[in-house]
Amino acid sequence: MNPIDRQKQAAGAAAALEIRDGMTVGLGTGSTAAHFVAALALRAQAEGLDLRCVSTSKATAEQANGLGLTVVPLDDVEWIDITVDGADEIGPGLSLIKGGGAALLREKLVWESSRRCIVIADAAKVVATLGAFPLPVEVVAFGHTATARRIRDAALRLGLVMEPRLRMRDGFPVQTDSGQLIYDLACGALPDPSALAGALKSITGVIDHGLFLGLADEALVGGINGVARLAR
Ligand code: 5RP
């Protein structure tokens, strides 16, 4: 395991210690979240914890089911006690860019149903200003190139110059778990993430974006000296 992966694993293991018997737990998506799911499954088995989990992606649901965790649909729960998920960037006030794994929509739906959200990451994810990581935006497949032009123009009005890039894999557009498309916006530094978030949400073909603002309650960040806890 490389040093970055060890930091992710340490953050995931620390987050697993936050879970109590009887909780409903939101499971994130990505390599850091996968470490949390693995650590949680070990704890649940060793301590006989009675947990219900809600997954943010098909991939995580598969992992969790395979490890013996009980996964239920979001529609079956009123509230989630705690959600633990990764991030692509952690900025000031625990503002986040998420969606590198194309799961941003389900992630945001789960986060918004959660009483407490913990973001877990390796230290390299903590930044002074969001935006070096291209912002993922989930877009309706119908008319997506027209939507991409509207995204470009809306960003330009905020002084952000970029051409939205359709995310591809093996020569085909990446499809999200909900069957939609992802555009990545390489805007560079985002001095006003909430202005961009508002502008993107007002475009009809945009389903959601990877800016998670005011959602994370705390962060557990793995580093060379162990795991640091950051508060909002
Ligand atoms: C998936 C996400 C992930 O949490 C994010 O991409 C971080 O991934 P990783 O833990 O693999 O670095 O938002 O949509």
Q: Indicate the percent of residues in helices.
A: 25-40%
Name the helix and strand elements from N-terminus to C-terminus, one letter apiece.
Answer: HEHEHEEEHEEHEEEEHEEEE
Unreliable residue stretches: none
Principal-axis shape equals: globular
Q: Specify the CATH architecture of the largest domain.
A: 3-Layer(aba) Sandwich
Our measurement of the CA-to-CA distance between the termini, rounded to an integer number of angstroms, reads 30 Å
Estimated structural class: alpha/beta
Q: Reading side by side through the largest sheet, how are the strands ordered? A: 2-1-3-6-14-15
Average residue-wise pLDDT: 98
Report the biggest beta sheet as strand number plus sense, adding barrel if it closes. 6 strands, mixed
| CATH third-tier fold name of the largest domain | Rossmann fold
Tell me how many strands there are: 15
Radius of gyration: 17 Å
